[in-house]
Amino acid sequence: MTTLAVEKHHWGSRRFLGIPAYRRLLATRLASQWGDGLFQAGLAGAVLFNPERQADPAAIAAGFAVLLLPYSLIGPFTGALLDRWDRKRVIVVANLLRAAFVLLTALAVGAGLSGLPLYVSALVVMGIGRFVGSGLSASLPHVVDEDHLVEANALATTAGAVMAVIGAASAIGFRTLLGAGDGGSAWTTSIAVVGLLLSAFIASRFKAGVLGPDEVDEPNHAITAVARGLVDGARATWRTPSVTAGLAALLAHRAAFGISLMITLLLMRYSLEDVGILKAGIGGLGEVAVAGGAGVLLAGVLTDRIVDRFGTKRTICGALLLTAAAQVGLGLPMTLPTILLASFVIIFAGQIVKLCVDTAVQQDVGDEVRGRVFALYDTLFNIAQVTAVSITAMVVPLNGRSHALILVAASLYLVGLGAYLFLSARERQVQHPGLVREDDGSHPIG
Length: 446
Hints:
Blueprint: H1 2-6, H2 12-17, H3 20-48, H4 57-82, H5 87-110, H6 116-139, H7 149-178, H8 182-190, H9 192-203, H10 222-227, H11 229-238, H12 241-271, H13 281-310, H14 312-331, H15 336-364, H16 367-395, H17 403-424
Domain Major facilitator superfamily (MFS) profile: 1-428
Pfam families: MFS_1
Membrane topology: Multi-pass membrane protein
């Protein structure tokens, strides 16, 4: 059995793209995440780097709450409904609805609105987007054999993340052409509607029911199903040690990443200056996004092979140690070159952890509750980042230069490592017949 795992044949992207259903699901994801990347970057430019507006740490934290809290507020509803409704229909309708609210958000930006009117519209866009993201993740096992889920998930997640970076870069380009003020920002933000409409069209080509759920383990009344979504997701997560431990590691990463992100934004906005071809300001954030995208791409290529060689447990532990080292070695200097290198390494290692956790959910959790587990996952994931960003906003100086906060972020990775090892010990005590991979890290090297 171990030998078979070691010698598992890697399909590669060409083989996966030869599966029509996988290709269509991937195209749906790419169009959606291009729109997401453009919308978020356009909105960030309008709020944080708009010469007509002034941003302080509190305003930045509020912006992140707008972008991320919907994941937490909408998450329970997303999971219950994805395990109850045809996922194809959910993805199509969600994309159409958020396209409409993208246009409303763009109108609010163009009118110079700020605060609650702008944030409510953006909250709806991001909140409805959870139905698309969770639906795509929960649908993947319906189009790819279980034996190749790690590789298929790595390809889909990596390509989607890279497309989001391309969307963000597109927003910076459109902003240069259309202007950095409210008017130009409004036009830039509105272009995201193209990706969302295209995603809805591609998803509409699936036949009804082909993306699941195969069985509905839900109460007859939708309100009851929604109300118990988080509880069901939490129970399923706790019954699956590989998911529980991986989620703890991922939450630590997300909290530490939130601290680093707030510091990076402030450094780019108020502290750093151009160094040769490297730019500060919103251009610098674009370079950070590109560096992060390269890290995501490399993680997508290597994760499946690293897991096959070292096992999931050693892979996650190594990734957490790498991020802690990068926080200290590359984060403390606070220069443009080291910030770019830190972005690459931290996002590369963090993506490895995420891919391992995504695959654990897809392999080890039953389809009838998988949507609710992904919804809980998204909820906790983003609560961790919003909380970290908000706390950081209360203590960070306006110029972003805080070595103490960098060390706190590094220590969080070590806390995550300890939590992961502690929770992984439950693996030996819990019988879970769905396991197909040696998550105890005992895979022989070589």
